[in-house]
Amino acid sequence: MKILISGGAGYIGSHTLRQFLKIDHEICVLDNLSKGSKIAIEDLQKIRAFKFFEQDLSDFQGVKALFEREKFDAIVHFAASIEVFESMQNPLKYYMNNTVNTTNLIETCLQTGVNKFIFSSTAATYGEPQTPVVSETSPLAPINPYGRSKLMSEEVLRDASMANPEFKHCILRYFNVAGACMDYTLGQRYPKATLLIKVAAECAAGKRDKLFIFGDDYDTKDGTCIRDFIHVDDISSAHLAALDYLQENESNVFNVGYGHGFSVKEVIEAMKKVSGVDFKVELA
């Protein structure tokens, strides 16, 4: 099988690429490197050679030409804009980069015979759930353009599969990704990290002056928000499992998480304990 990983130079994409390189399939990567790391691509080439295409998904004709030439069998689609706060400041960027580009990618798949599509979605599609645990059938009510752009993409996928039964998809809605691969060769390389554990680590390392807690009036034991943090390698494994699932099954959607969480304060205290650094924390 010939598999294309879009956004394969990014945080989750590069970790997933690392795992896919260990299986007996031909792997290719597409990334415009706006957020992705060329260093990660170069390092992963040492595991096994693969084709890398520096390409923007907004170049619809260029992407179609690539698909016609390479004849992929499946796509694992990560490429997207992912910052919630930015999505509220610049919503059109998110609808273009996420919904429009994904729609164009789906159309390209249908036109070129790619019949397996694994979509990197998000638990942000659930918005603010009224229950402690959400299932795949919980109400979908995203509260920001990022979540809405992903949900719109999900709907396009579902409609495309209904109209084209041979085109199967697997949607993975994952929660709060964290961590890095255990041999330290990969991690989150963004210069302006927004993920809590990464920010806490930067505070402990002296790269930030302080960490801000956004809200302490949640209905939790310490007043801070509880999140289901999942290790990036486990998210990567979920994409491998999704590919296997589509070999014998129809389209589906799955949540990817551990089913239990930790509060913001618990994460901060754990980082302080592990690092031995009592860094400054303020309520925003």
Write the layout of secondary structure elements.
Elements: E1 2-6, H1 11-20, E2 26-31, H2 38-44, E3 51-54, H3 60-70, E4 74-77, H4 84-89, H5 91-112, E5 116-122, H6 145-163, E6 168-174, E7 176-178, H7 196-204, E8 210-213, E9 226-227, E10 229-231, H8 232-248, E11 252-256, E12 262-263, H9 264-275, E13 280-283
Helix pairs in contact: 1-8, 3-5, 5-6, 7-9
Can you put this structure into words, describing what you see?
- The structure is a single chain.
- The protein has 284 residues and is an alpha/beta fold.
- The protein folds into two domains: 209 residues, NAD(P)-binding Rossmann-like Domain (Rossmann fold); 51 residues, no CATH class.
- Helix content is 40%, strand content 20%.
- It contains nine helices and 13 strands.
- Strands 3-2-1-4-5-6-11 form a seven-stranded parallel beta sheet, with helices on both faces. It has a two-stranded parallel ribbon with strand order 7-10. It has a two-stranded parallel sheet with strand order 8-13.
- Helix 6 links the parallel strand 5 and strand 6.
- Helix 1 crosses helix 8 and helix 5 runs parallel beside helix 6.
- The protein is globular.
